[in-house]
Specification:
With 130 residues, the chain is mainly alpha-helical. It is 55% helix and 9% strand. The model has no long low-confidence stretch (mean pLDDT 88).
Length: 130
């Protein structure tokens, strides 16, 4: 994966927030809307951008469009996602997003796809970038 493309994707706060949420596992557009408090069209636009540049994958499951980080990641992407995970600890907006996501996940019902209810954890890169 081209490093410039990774950084182009990371230079937007909404896309950073989306990627940060995906570190906890796959989510549907409706979950991003609820956590970020942004309209569906804005979330979908950013998810399409991230998908186009290979930073997220999408899969339809019945009525749900599930987004997740790529299963197979380049070393550069893994390192930058680990760096994102470390760097956002100081930013309140990301901590608030994480708290809202935790509350939303607690309310997931049996209609929520298994991959969203029981996600595989993000594996950090062996060496973070910062």
């Amino acid at each position: 994966m081209d490093l410039v493309k990774i950084y182009e994707c990371l230079c937007d706060r909404t896309r950073l927030r989306i990627l940060h949420l995906l570190l906890d596992g796959p989510l549907c557009v409706c979950h991003f809307q609820e956590v970020l408090g942004e309209p569906q069209v804005k979330i979908s636009k950013h998810l399409a951008y991230l998908r186009q540049h290979g930073l997220v994958q999408a899969e339809r499951q019945a009525n749900w469009m599930i987004y997740q980080l790529p299963e197979k990641r380049s070393d550069q992407l893994s390192a930058n996602l680990s760096c994102l995970q470390d760097c956002v600890r100081e930013e309140r907006v990301f901590r608030d997003d994480q708290a809202r996501l935790k509350r939303i996940k607690a309310s997931f019902g049996t209609d929520t796809p298994d991959c969203v209810r029981q996600p595989a954890p993000f594996r950090r890169a062996k060496r973070a970038c910062c």
